[in-house]
Specification:
By secondary structure, the chain is mainly alpha-helical. The protein has helices at residues 2-9, 17-27, 33-50, 59-74, 80-103, 132-144, 148-158, 164-168, 201-213, 239-255, 265-278, 283-290, and strands spanning 175-177, 183-190, 193-198. The chain has a three-stranded antiparallel beta sheet, with helices on one face. Strand 2 and strand 3 (193-198) form a beta hairpin. Helix 6 (132-144) packs across helix 10. The radius of gyration is 24 Å and the shape is elongated.
């Protein structure tokens, strides 16, 4: 066939006969000639990026191929619609491979299932990121008002990159102490992934102070979780409650002419990820700590340039005064 001849002559593609005869020829049987050629070239491009055919797919392979698509899209070499089409082809092919493997009693995971091409417009600009002056204002106002709940939440967002939902779901029994006395938090499972993060020392001090003040919080009993953050009604703090608290401080900052734009906890989280990258943590490390995939990190390219990298042993540039 045409594909067999191409595979023999193209050293970069390395489409093995096993893949061609056991997977490709069956998958492509009902495709039009044009679609068959386009799909074949997409598979060749995948192999060029990963080094082997998709019947050996790993999570790392999916990440490499996805990041390659996003990188080309961000640099203008590939349109978003073409990137979406290529990813869709790989999802479809790997679904077919999974079916074939499962029928043969073999285990196979289509790691492409969790990937989606980001919107071009979601590439972040500097204007979308809160400044250090704005962040410091929020901390100082919170401390001046003895608002320990706000200061603790703000610390977890700005220094740890936690989402509002993750913060609201923290329970007392998910907090542990490592041997040097630094607190760690087990983030509840999301999309079948859970993680344990070690708090920076300044955030650990803030959290310890908060827990000491609110020592009426007890470990969960009878499977009822005991959350550490509560609203004025005495019920578990919800994301909208946390956003409402922040909004009050932002409005004060705008009135004082220190804060120049509307801020949300999500925009503060963007600042956290920016500072982690500025601290020269790798994209994979930032992704693992924040519970995201590295596919989203190219959106920070415009706000983290070579010129503003900071040599730091810590992942974050922001340091919170705890006294």
């Amino acid at each position: 066939t045409l594909e067999n001849n191409q595979a023999k002559s193209d050293n970069n593609s390395e489409l093995t006969n096993e893949f061609l005869y056991s997977i490709w020829n069956f998958f492509a049987a009902n495709l039009s000639d044009r679609a068959r050629k386009n799909y074949y070239n997409i598979v060749k491009a995948y192999v060029k990026v990963t080094g082997h055919t998709p019947d050996e797919l790993t999570h790392s392979d999916a990440d490499k191929y996805f990041n390659d698509l996003v990188s080309k899209m961000n640099s203008g070499k590939l349109s978003r619609s073409t990137a979406i089409m290529r990813l869709s082809v790989m999802k479809s092919l790997c679904d077919y491979i999974k079916h074939r493997k499962n029928m043969a009693g073999q285990v196979y995971t289509n790691f492409f299932r969790d990937y989606a091409i980001p919107d071009n417009q979601k590439i972040l600009s500097e204007d979308a990121i809160p400044t250090e002056e704005e962040i410091n204002y929020l901390f100082e106002k919170g401390k001046k008002n003895n608002d320990d709940t706000f200061v603790c939440i703000l610390s977890l967002v700005v220094k740890c990159g936690l989402t509002t939902s993750e913060i609201c779901r923290i329970t007392i029994d998910s907090i542990m102490t490592e041997k040097k006395g630094i607190l760690c938090i087990k983030i509840r499972e999301s999309k079948k992934v859970s993680r344990i993060i070690k708090l920076p020392s300044d955030v650990s001090k803030i959290m310890k102070k908060y827990l000491k003040k609110h020592d009426n919080i007890t470990v969960c009993v009878d499977s009822t979780p005991k959350y550490i953050f509560y609203n004025k009604r005495g019920t578990n703090l919800k994301p909208r409650d946390a956003e409402r608290i922040l909004k009050n401080y932002v409005e004060q900052g705008i009135y004082d002419n220190v804060i120049k734009k509307e801020l949300t906890l999500q925009s503060l989280r963007h600042a956290a990820i920016k500072y982690m990258l500025m601290g020269k943590l790798s994209e994979d490390e930032v992704a693992a700590y924040c519970g995201i995939t590295s596919k989203w990190l190219p959106r920070y390219e415009r706000v983290v340039s070579e010129g503003n990298y900071i040599t730091s042993a810590d992942y974050s540039v922001i340091s919170i005064k705890t006294t």
